[in-house]
Amino acid sequence: MKGSIFAAIALGAADASAHYIFQQLQVGGTKYPLWQGVRQHTNYNSPVTDLSSADLRCNVGGGRGSGTQTVSVRAGDSVTFFSDVAVYHQGPTSLYMSKAPGSAADYDGSGQWFKIYDWGPTITGSGASWKLDSSYTANIPSCIPDGEYLLRIQSLGIHNPWPAGIPQFYISCAQIKVTGGGSANPSPAVSIPGAFKETDPGYTANIYNNLRSYTVPGPSVFTCGAGNTNPGNPPVTPPQTTLATTTRVPNPTTVPAPGGCSVARYGQCGGNGYTGCTTCASGSTCSRTNDWYSQCV
Ligand SMILES: [Cu+2]
After folding, report:
1. How remote is the CA of residue 14 from the centroid of ligand 1, in Å?
2. pLDDT of 34-88, one tens digit each?
């Protein structure tokens, strides 16, 4: 971890020892073993911080994927990245895709990238809350052309604000083969490196200083058009009590109950593609938010 000496001291040794690695992929209802479909990089759990480095694409050692299986995804299917440890640095997480000229395994990511999802903050008068989690789910756009792609997750830690600190990119790429797609030409398209600058407001933002709005770095999210937006994960549920900006928002958790399962309040209990527990903890009931998401309230 880079950052100011002050910040390093303030954050303590535990911070440096347990960063997160996006190492597992689920497609629809199929959860693959560790590093199957995901390129195993050599950066362990360290971030990439150099905005001009090709390591920003698929992390250190992730430039090729000859040893990685490419997994099939139907256009429109949900995909989930899992990390070994839940993300805990505040900041946005995004999903990008880039079409390989040939096989995804041979592709270094030097072509054009488009963004398919952003998890930005929920900002209230008392601060910002982020999706800090160990799984991030979104849908592959249904209109993109068939072919092999890199699917890239990026969690950007902005907990040590620029310029005293350096934002941290936690990255992995999966190799996917899309079928059943369409003929869209996804845009806007960007190069990596190049898509992120030291002048981006979402890069320089100070989350501890009266954050009123936030723009996730990178291009705008590509969608297939009206009525076809990406459902992805639900927005972060704003906390009910006053939240200090440094307080971590508890993740909705599923807790087992005798004789079955139980979803804690604000946890997911239903929706298209959802295969988890549908029983809400006592005191809450499962309420439909949209076709893709119901939660216990
Ligand atoms: Cu850290």
Report:
1. 9
2. 999 999 999 999 999 999 999 999 999 999 998 999 999 999 999 999 999 999 9
- Cα 287 to averaged position of ligand 1 atoms, centre (Å): 36
User: How many angstroms does the Cα of residue 165 sit away from the middle of ligand 1?
Assistant: 11
Q: How far is the CA of 144 from the centre of ligand 1 (A)?
A: 35
The alpha carbon of 250 and the centre of ligand 1 are apart by a number of angstroms equal to: 19
d(CA 96, CA 74): 17
- 3-class secondary structure, 11: helix
The pLDDT value recorded for residue 244 is 38
Answer yes or no: is pLDDT of 266 > 90.
no
Asked whether 206 and 163 are in contact (CB, 8 A), the reply is no
Under 8 Å between Cβ of 176 and 71: yes
pTM as predicted: 0.74
Q: In angstroms, rounded to a whole number, what is the distance separating the alpha carbons of residues 181 and 177?
A: 11
pLDDT top residue among 194 and 124: 194
Radius of gyration of the chain (CA): 19
